[in-house]
Amino acid sequence: MAVEAGPWHGLISELLDRSHLWQPEDLGGVLDRAAGRLGLRMTVYVADAEQRMLRPLPVPGRAGAVPLPIDAHAAGQAFALVESVVADGRRWVPMVNGTDRMGVLEVETPAGTAPDERLARPCETVAGLVGHLITTTMPRGDHLHMARRSRPMTAGAELLWHLLPPLTVSVADFAVAAVLEPAYDVGGDAFDYTVDGRRPQFVVLDAAGRGMKAALAAAVALSCLRAARRAGGDLPAQARAADKELLRQFPDARFATAVLAELDLDTGVLRYLNAGHPPPLVLRAGTVAGTLTDGRRLPLGIADPRATCAEIILQPGDRLLLYTDGVTEARDPTGAQFGQNRLADTLERHAADGLPVPETLRRLSHTVLAHQSGPPADDLTLLLVEWSSGAARRTVPPTSRADEQES
Length: 407
What we know:
This is Stage II sporulation protein E. By secondary structure, the chain is of the alpha+beta class. The chain is built from 13 helices and 18 strands. The chain has two domains: 5-148, Beta-Lactamase, CATH 3.30.450; 155-393, 4-Layer Sandwich (Phosphatase 2c, domain 1), CATH 3.60.40.10. Helix 7 packs across helix 8 (235-249). The longest helix has 20 residues, at 211-230. The model is unreliable at 1-5 (pLDDT under 50).
């Protein structure tokens, strides 16, 4: 089935024009009507907060579609691998905002016709636009937030999720992804990063306690680290800023453990500061090659003026994993902890699959959750950085990868 370039331009223009004034619930219907003029039918599926199901956005006048399991459906394969998949006479297209996986776009051609390969590029373009429009439309209301949820979210989790950056960001020569669980009840865990210039920074923190008090402490610490960083402060200065404000805001001496790291992409020097937190892991050539045990200081919220950074040299292709103690201290029904050795083994096994960084992390987090008996006793956060251009390319759809290589 051949489609002229002109009609695709009309579809994109209609989406953009209508997006200025639409309400969040209009997105699915506007897209499907515009696609209908090309003889196509399109349905948007968004990934839920726990990244287990793809949930359809409603289309007026059409029977509601059912949620699809990421781990057992062609749509989930498209989401996981960031690659278009053709199955059952339809095309499933990965939907990203930049490199943050939002879900998939289902594209159906008229009955009796096969999904033509010439649809691949324009469908990926439309899916990318829809991913961007979902992100910019979400702050207008609750509809798109609710579409991505399988159950209500606690107030503490609501606070933290709105402070966090996207789960995945890639630039030319590295990719970074993060996961937080339990998605609807996270309390004191948080993460942050900045990918500006040649010295990206990464943070994982864990405020003591549970519920809203822990969420508030995490929010204070995160805001202080950002403010100090944006004022030009180095890692120790950022930590001191968090110390000062946590002491000021919480008379009960609430604190947060954290790892702050900065990677010099020109020299490979990784500078890091560990404020009472589990030690990060370095993966090299598919094997855990090091545990970062230096650079230690007291937790944030407890002044430690003598603290200094540690340094190691990373190599292109290395992976860096930051995590909270909710990962290693997760217990199975017998009481056995997941532990650092099991974490290292699981990381190596998933790395051997050659998956995109966010998919490696999604599967790793689900492995930790499956280890436990019942709901997690503590929040768990994972942040994974891979320093390679290949890792960055694997987080965008195939035609975008080809364009990047040609340029």
